[in-house]
Amino acid sequence: MAVSVEQIEDLLGKDHQHPTMGLLTATSRGWVIPLFARHLEPFGTVSADEFHVRVAETLEHPDVPRSDRTPAEHCRKWLGDRWIESLVKDERTYYRLSSSSLRALQFVRELAGGESAVGSARVASIEFAIETLAAAADPDRQGRIARIDARIAELESEKRGLETGRSREASTSDLRGHLREIQILSRTLPADFRSLQAKIAESHKAAARRAWNDTPPKAELLEDYLDKNESFSSTAEGAAYDSFTELLTHDRARKLNAAIDHVLEQPFAREHMSAAEREEFRNIVSTLNRSRHEVDQERMRWKEFLRRVVTRSSLNRNKHINALAQRAMSAGATWAAKAPGHRTVPTELLGIGTIEIEDMSQIRLWEDEGPAKVSVAVRPHTTGLSRSDVDALRLAAGTGHRAVRRHVNALLEENGRATGAQVLEAMPPDNRRLGTAISLIDLAVEHGSTAATEFEIVELLDAAGTATRWQIPLTAFTAPVPSKENA
């Protein structure tokens, strides 16, 4: 959609009320945007407690201006500015980036990485999009068939070039350009999905307020729901959501994942893609699917609310009880203000009568039995340790500092240098646990080096023995780690 100059002037003339513009022009953007990129964007949702800790750590950095706000107060301000969003799961509060902040991060990333000028990859994308539009917009069936025949002829010519060895191999620069183009396109979808989720949530809140205040007919609520649901699909974000959902429900998803695996097996991926780029490329589909799943959850909440309203016959009764409670609270406040003191409530104040209650349980809620008598008996253990205790001791020994130091020094003798990922890979699979990673980082802080802004992806086992991927600071060792006895 073309944007006129008047629309641009209108946006900039509102004192940057748009959240994206507000974030990009805020005086705190120098530390807030990196904070969002490092601690929110890679994880989707982060618990409020954990994110407050990250904010506190950032505020202690010498380059960050001093502020009287606490981390929680900063987060409340960002919620008001619509830079982040909050949600509650399992009675815990979580934060996530808003669609406006995701777009701001994408814009800054393009500026920092020069991704807006990717050479032939961008030209190829534009050419393919124009050809697709020309074919889709052509009402003449024969014209569309002719275009398909022309494309088949091009593919046949390309095939003959490969067979005869006359085709030019793509350069590393071309491959990097295509990779950046894929990164740009895939990073825009989560922002679109988040925007669609926000629209659904707002419609949900409006429907809830209307159902509670106006009590519209059920048929009218259903009709409004269907109209809203159809209108979402007509938006650009809804169309992107529907297209990605269609991709997942067909054989196209399997082919796409196979193509991703094929790229990662090539020398280009091993030699010219960083570990972070390979991880991001490998998880493109799963990352987008996670964002799509959040939209599905929002829709399910809307459907569940509608089901409760449609099937509940006591809505008017609940509203009546709520009105009576409000009357009682108002009357009580007025009475207490005019005549404070102990009073007996009249029997028919609310018109619901009184209930006579008689305690028949004879339960004594508390009784002082005097000082408690405690005796300690010590019995010798003659059967040996249990299997679980032996396994726990073996795991503690295999993940402690001594075991990690032994593998670090062995790698140093072999290669002269050892990274954290290499150390973990050299250890037995059963000992690759979170405790091992903590021991590794402790040793690197004291005897090696750690990078504050660089990370590497490692595979660890959880308590159930399931392999999970973790992002840990990049660590390296160039000198043997001494034992405590020799330190």
TrEMBL record:
It comes from the Bacteria. InterPro entries: DUF3375. This is DUF3375 domain-containing protein. It comes from Brevibacterium samyangense.
